[in-house]
Design goal:
Radius of gyration: 25 Å
Structural class: alpha+beta
Helix content: 40-55%
Shape: elongated
Number of strands: 11
Largest sheet: 6 strands, antiparallel
Distance between the termini: 30 Å
């Protein structure tokens, strides 16, 4: 599934990567809003939602009309609370239908919008985590070697953290490009992708060996071989967020706001009550 989704998102988002991030996210949000509206139309109780919203509006009008009558105001406030609870219950069904697809979409978008590329001349850390089945002593004695292509300089020897299963290197990229680091453990070797660029592109901070949660959160690279002692390889990419009207915010906030705005604008055209 990750392979198919990765290929699909690369094909769709690749041409948009030259746009400003907010502009390309707007296109993604528009598509997301359309899909959300189709799901809501198919899975929700549209008549119940419409009646509940009318009940909320009626109670709010009562509060304004009887503002000098505390009893009626309190009664209307109670109706607002009850109607909102009913509205949330009706909204839960389409939300459950959308939950898993949205998680997969967000995980794919994180690779494009969540990280900046490494900068030439600026050091970065590469971390290898060995499987927990090895003792810390075995992990620290593991003969791990990292090979880097032209354009990447390995700045330090492997640093093995005593009492843990982690091995670190510091690297310095010398030129922009897409690279593959090779980690050798005896006669076995695995690779890790590396992006050195200021341009927006898919970036994978972590490649894992197994685990459903890891596959969902880091879908951009295939799993490491099961026979390898290496459980994960991590590259420390910067996570600066997006510039929105002079504010630095997480890309998911921008995506959520744009998706909801597009859904509200298009709801009437699709004949959907949300």
């Amino acid at each position: 599934m990750n392979g198919a989704l990765t290929a699909a998102f690369d094909a769709v988002l690749g041409p948009l990567m030259g746009w400003p991030p907010v502009a390309s996210l707007l296109v993604v949000s528009l598509v997301t809003a359309v899909m959300m509206l189709l799901v809501v139309a198919r899975t929700s109780n549209q008549k119940g939602l419409a009646n509940t919203k009318r009940g909320i509006h009626a109670a709010l009008f009562e509060i304004r009309l009887f503002g000098d009558d505390p009893v009626n105001v309190l009664r209307a406030l109670g109706e607002v609370v009850m109607c909102n609870a009913h509205y949330l219950r009706l909204s839960l069904v389409p939300l459950l239908w959308m939950a898993i697809p949205l998680v997969l979409v967000v995980a794919q978008l994180q690779g494009f919008y969540g990280y900046d590329g490494l900068t030439p001349g600026v050091p970065a850390i590469v971390k290898v985590e060995l499987r927990q089945t090895a003792s810390p002593a075995d992990a620290s004695a593991a003969a791990l070697v990292m090979d880097a292509p032209d354009g990447i300089r390995i700045d330090t020897a492997a640093v093995r953290l005593l009492g843990s299963h982690e091995v670190l290197w510091r690297i310095v990229p010398n030129a922009e490009g897409t690279y593959a680091l090779t980690i050798r453990d005896g006669d076995r070797a695995v690779t890790k992708s590396l992006q050195v660029s200021a341009s927006r592109a898919r970036r994978s901070p972590r490649r894992l060996q197994a685990g459903l949660g890891g596959q969902v959160l880091y879908p951009s690279e295939p799993l490491l071989p099961e026979e390898s002692r290496i459980a994960a390889i991590t590259v420390a990419y910067p996570e600066p967020g997006l510039d929105l009207l002079g504010w630095r915010v997480h890309w998911m906030i921008v995506y959520g706001l744009l998706s909801m705005a597009c859904a509200l604008i298009l709801a009437r055209r699709f004949g959907v009550t949300i």
